[in-house]
Amino acid sequence: MLNTIDRTGKVLDLFTAETPEWGVTAVAARLHLPKSTTFDIMSSLAAIGLLQQTSGDRYRLGWRVLLISRRLMSSSCFNAHTTRHVAALAHQLSGVVTVGAWDGRGVVCIANASADRTDPIVTRGVHISGHTSALGKLLMAQQPWPTVEELIARNGLPRLTENSVVDVNILHAQLICARRDDVAIEHGETIPDQSCVAVGIHQRDHRAIAALSISAPTERLLNRREEYIRIARRTARSLVENAVPPH
């Protein structure tokens, strides 16, 4: 049963904006699965609406994925208010503001906004680099270290810039500090000359369900670091306190 669930997850992971359509043969080859097994998985997913058959043995994601996404957002503290609040803060600080959560494999973007159209924008639902981003460090710090080690063993610590942390011991020390202080900071690890600070978004049981980050040019963030941390924490509390309860 667990093996089937794992295979199903891997099949769904193949469907991206870059490769939105897959055939049974191609999926079987990519995942090193028997074609008959792959067919059974994909046809079963189509039967419950998570995939839709386009032609022959080719499939795309099904519309039920969107329905589940909407249910997830409406049952959490992240909704239209989150998007508006993030956009307003990005405009106020002339920076990039992002809310992300941990989905078991990495950081997934919930909301992202920038006051400058030239800044890189992360689409909601897209994975964000874990070990090089402040969001990633904050959220990875909430995981048991063996879980993080498994993730590193699977994905490595790829270098995105010359400042990216690629040493496991250094990352471990950073995560210990992030968990202790509920704040993570990175300087030019994801984008050169850009720095980022992230804090946890906590539920009433003090569990960090997500994180919020503020990104700005490194010199500005260094000069306003403590101010940005205070603003990020205040905003994180506001997102939870002002959330519209699900109906």
UniProtKB/TrEMBL annotation:
Domain of life: Bacteria
Protein keywords: DNA-binding, Transcription, Transcription regulation
Molecular functions per Gene Ontology: DNA binding; DNA-binding transcription factor activity
Ranges of residues in domain HTH iclR-type: 2-63
Pfam families: HTH_IclR (PF09339), IclR_C (PF01614)
Domain IclR-ED: 64-247
GO biological process: negative regulation of DNA-templated transcription
Name the UniProt record assigns to this protein: IclR family transcriptional regulator
Native species: Mycolicibacterium peregrinum
